Amino acid sequence: MTVFAAPDYDGHEHVSFGYDPETGLRAVIAIHNTNLGPAVGGCRMWSYTNDQAALSDALRLSRGMTYKSALAGLPFGGGKSVIIGDAKTEKTAQLMQAMGRFVESLGGRYVAAEDIGMKVSDMDEMAKVTKHVTGTSATSGNPSPFTAYGVLRGIEAAVEHRLQRNDGLAGTRVAIQGLGAVGFDLARRLHEKGARLHVADINTEAVAKAVDMFDATPVNAGEIHAADVDVFSPCALGALINDDTIDAVQAKIVAGSANNQLSNDSHGTALAARGILYAPDYVINAGGIIEIAHGPDFGGTHDDAEIYAHLDRIHDTLAEIFQRADVENAPTNRIADTMAEERFQLSV
Ligand code: NAD
Q1: pLDDT digit string (tens) for 13-29?
Q2: Cα 258 to averaged position of ligand 1 atoms, centre (Å)
Q3: What CATH number has the domain spanning 14-66+77-127?
């Protein structure tokens, strides 16, 4: 296994490998950068095909958290942990406590949050042995409505910039891919603003509900990216802007909650070349971590007014990214990365 030469290694400060013989825990904690504060990021449990794949995921995701928190204006660095195993069949309370002890061994440089394969009850088990965990039953809320509000504010910023509209979203045509926890709440908020919705989900019940409640137009799940609309809002899968889909996108704006929307960075360049304004995913979908940052685990009171004021800054940050992208004639994903680096690299 290679670490420093691994393709996803990017100057990470710290990488730890944890093993517990009693429970069989095998886990990696990666801390990318702590210039802005402790490295906060999800703990993921996944059946990785091999150890290198687990390490790659921890390296890649922890780096992403540094960028996300920096642009969200949070006093957090970037970290992520992965447990190697099947969350459905191999997860036990003892395994989670062993993971908690592993997190504790880093003395607070890394704070674990919920991620794929984790539930609030798992965070509770970890919390029995470490205080460096967030999203327990004592403190956690449901981040999705906050994420959806941040996406709404991001769509507003994009419509103002790309469509030169400052009179709200009434009549704006938005295609939403995925009507899950975020997508459905976003649909509700957009409908309240007078937007005209096109929706797709592999869950036909969710689609029927949106048609009924929001007068939305149902679209085939395989064709939603090509809908003739103003805004395409991916709220389901990652890598949905790829070689097979990019040419079919008709929207002038791509702005949604999904993580890692671009199959790779070059797709950001290709969107820009086609005059499509892309709201970088980690900027527009930061609502969840912003909510966590205002909670009791980080000394806050979870005050709604404070959280929403912070979420409104997603609009302003995106407006700045769009402006700079125009001035520098560069793709928005590249500008977002540069702005994040300016914040966390200069903060030492
Ligand atoms: P979710 O699982 O509740 O919803 C996802 C929805 O997408 C489901 O309804 C699912 O049926 C649908 N879907 C799956 N494959 C599809 C396809 N091929 N076409 C159309 N629909 C499909 O997840 P969520 O919490 O709403 O998150 C949505 C996205 O936003 C994810 O990429 C997630 O990582 C990201 N995100 C979520 C949050 C949050 O606060 N929940 C925060 C940041 C990022």
Answers
A1: 999 999 999 999 999 99
A2: 7
A3: 3.40.50.10860
